[in-house]
Amino acid sequence: MESKGFMFKDKYLDISKLTANPHIFNLFKVVEKHGGVLRFVGGSVRDAIAGMKGFDLDLATDLSPDELVEACEESGLKTIPIGIKFGTVGVVIDNQVLEVTSLRKDIKTDGRHAEVVFTSDWNEDASRQAEVVFTSDWNEDASRRDLTINAVYADEKGNVFDYYNGVDDLEKGIVRFIGSAGQRIKEDYLRILRFFRFYSIFGKAPIDTKALEACKENKDGLKQLSMERIRDELFKLFLTPKVIETLQIMYDNEI
Fold first, then answer.
1. Coil, strand, or helix at residue 140?
2. What is the pLDDT of residues 74-113, one digit of tens each?
3. What distance in Å separates the CA atoms of residue 76 and residue 71, rounded to the nearest whole number?
């Protein structure tokens, strides 16, 4: 999927809103020394731009998991293979585990999650069964994410890399899917509930009609999900600012 609205915003974000721990920025130097790029991504960037305090720091890199581990080992940083199957490496800094995920693109999904293995460039044997491959293309990584407001990246200097007008949507209170709403939902039906949760938190404009219609058309897909995933997402929704209004919309549309 080609990004139609990439924006680079020079020193747009006050990086202190993301983290007050200066030691975390050492990891950026470690990755750069190894020839890679590291950026904050997702919820922490979104919340910082919106003036909220995020709880989890997620980072993305164009290094492979093996390259990231090698770079950390050379610099004396401990790593934990917390989600190596999905390309996520835990890096321990000041007793805090930072989750760093290699850029990837989804090839096949089953409505519950994407199947992930290593790309042919990094692991030829595993790639023969690849359903998701890793990539060095930041736009490719952004395109697989669910909502525009969740596909915004920031570096250690506060520069923001916005591939799908997520910053503009965030400022206007528009919550919408990247590309085809129906396709994004079919990749993981939990995104129906995530859409309503984020609308309850960030929505200012009327609810996106394309997204709502896609949620209605794919609501039966929720039956494929485990009760635990649905429960956890609903609990998060119940804690959002406009939960009553949002639940009413869901009820009116038989979701």
1. helix
2. 999 999 988 777 789 999 999 889 999 999 876 655 555 5
3. 9
